[in-house]
């Protein structure tokens, strides 16, 4: 068990902002709208909301509970629920740390692009056209420099610790993120063509429903809450014992889902506004063009057609994207840092420096071998390892952890939970249904 000096979030609100910040990332503000646009809009939205409830939320509760029980790094938290000494939980825990680092490495490259698109129009306004063009042009130097800047910013926040770094900055950035969303949504919905996008997003067309859509929505719900990579175990380990985990997890999931919904409310109407301005968004067969690079192609093209207002809108949009990326990258770095502090006895500063250095080295390796490694690292970490680890944690909480121990941990923040409908349903649901759903996601991806 961890010592009494272990860091904790100073308040329930601070935890919710940090956990929601981790969950709210490019998967919400980029991945979800792109998937919705590619899969009929409203139908995907409905299935996604259902999957948040039936898969993501039960799994989130499990990871937070394991973390708070262990009050330690993921390696020790997983071992704390294992009945006998074994190298199995340590092995999967290390795999979780590796996955978090892999995600951080490619995430930093994408976030660097966002930073470039944020700063570029500002440089253009003050006459630095060459520098502005460099920031938006794909090159080895640009990719490397901006990735280093982003990882450096992430390291600075994590180095300040749980309360003064992660909690403080998440509590500042999340309200700004929500505020930017509201401003951008209001503006876009006043533009010509926006109602067509809104209709697609909110009025279901069941002809788009398919088994692939269901599995895609299931995976999106799982990935958007940072599940599988032990982030929520780490954040759970910083939770006081008197916090009601199921209730708090539901609040985190609600914020995350609300941001994803808002992203769709912004991006889909914006796509149709772009179409009204002459930007092609679908091919003749009705398939979304440039789905992987939507935010770097379609939307900037739309901003360019808006004149001086478009410059402001573009800056706000990429500021929103960058904040979402930063709140997630903070949590990805905290996972291996928390382990280095407890397992190796390193100070937080030392752990951040050397682990941040590893992340930089990984990002540099991807940049120098972009064509080979970029897509490969994304596929291995998010398509294969994340679902696999999610399946492992579901089995750990549902089958390995003794039911009495699980109840005792949940009960500490909710003394009456044993008599609740939640406790009558959730343990068996976690034991039987979640592994089947996670196994389905994993099976379909391979």
Automatic annotation (TrEMBL):
The chain crosses the membrane at residues 12-30, 42-67, 88-107, 144-163, 169-190, 211-238, 250-273, 309-330, 351-378, 384-401. SUPFAM superfamilies: SNF-like. Pfam families: SNF. Keywords: Membrane, Transmembrane, Transmembrane helix, Transport. InterPro entries: Na/ntran_symport, SNS_sf, YocR/YhdH-like. It is found in: Membrane. It comes from the Bacteria. It is a multi-pass membrane protein. PANTHER family: TRANSPORTER. NCBIfam families: Na_transp (NF037979). This is Sodium-dependent transporter.
């Amino acid at each position: 068990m961890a010592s009494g000096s272990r860091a904790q979030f100073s308040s329930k609100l601070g935890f919710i902002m940090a956990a929601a910040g981790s969950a709210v990332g490019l998967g919400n503000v980029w991945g979800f709208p792109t998937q919705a646009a590619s899969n009929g809009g409203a139908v995907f939205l409905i299935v996604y909301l259902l999957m948040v409830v039936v898969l993501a939320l039960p799994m989130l509760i499990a990871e937070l509970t394991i973390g708070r029980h262990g009050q330690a790094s993921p390696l020790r938290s997983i071992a704390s629920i294992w009945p006998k000494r074994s190298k199995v939980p340590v092995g999967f825990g290390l795999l979780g740390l590796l996955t978090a680092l892999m995600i951080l490495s490619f995430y930093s490259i994408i976030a660097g692009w966002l930073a470039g698109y944020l700063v570029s129009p500002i440089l253009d306004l003050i006459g630095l056209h060459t520098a502005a063009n460099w920031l938006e042009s794909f090159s080895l130097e640009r990719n490397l420099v901006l990735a280093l800047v982003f990882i450096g910013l992430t390291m600075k926040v994590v180095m300040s610790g749980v309360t003064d770094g992660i909690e403080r900055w998440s509590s500042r950035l999340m309200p700004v993120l929500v505020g930017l969303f509201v401003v951008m949504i209001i503006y876009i919905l006043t533009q010509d063509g926006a109602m067509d996008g809104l209709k697609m997003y909110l009025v279901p067309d069941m002809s788009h429903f398919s088994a692939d859509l269901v599995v895609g929505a299931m995976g999106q719900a799982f990935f958007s809450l940072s599940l599988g990579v032990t982030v929520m175990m780490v954040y759970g380990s910083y939770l006081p014992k008197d916090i009601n985990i199921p209730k708090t997890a539901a609040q985190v999931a609600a914020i995350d889902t609300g941001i994803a919904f808002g992203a769709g409310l912004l991006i889909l109407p914006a796509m149709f506004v772009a179409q009204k301005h002459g930007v092609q968004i679908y091919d003749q067969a009705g398939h979304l063009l440039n789905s992987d690079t939507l935010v770097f192609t379609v939307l900037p093209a739309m901003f360019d057609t808006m004149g001086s207002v478009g410059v402001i809108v573009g800056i706000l949009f990429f500021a929103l994207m960058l904040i979402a990326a930063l709140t997630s990258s903070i949590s990805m770095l905290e996972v291996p840092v928390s382990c280095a502090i407890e397992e190796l006895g390193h100070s937080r500063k030392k752990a951040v420096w050397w682990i941040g250095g590893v992340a930089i080295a990984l990002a540099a390796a991807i940049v120098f071998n972009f064509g080979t490694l970029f897509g490969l690292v994304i596929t291995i970490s998010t398509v294969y390892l994340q679902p696999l680890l999610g399946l492992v944690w579901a089995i750990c909480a549902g089958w390995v952890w003794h039911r009495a121990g699980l109840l005792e941990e949940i009960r500490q923040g909710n003394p009456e939970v044993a008599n609740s409908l939640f406790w009558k349903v959730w343990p068996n649901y976690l034991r039987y249904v979640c592994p089947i759903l996670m196994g389905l996601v994993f099976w379909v991806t391979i």
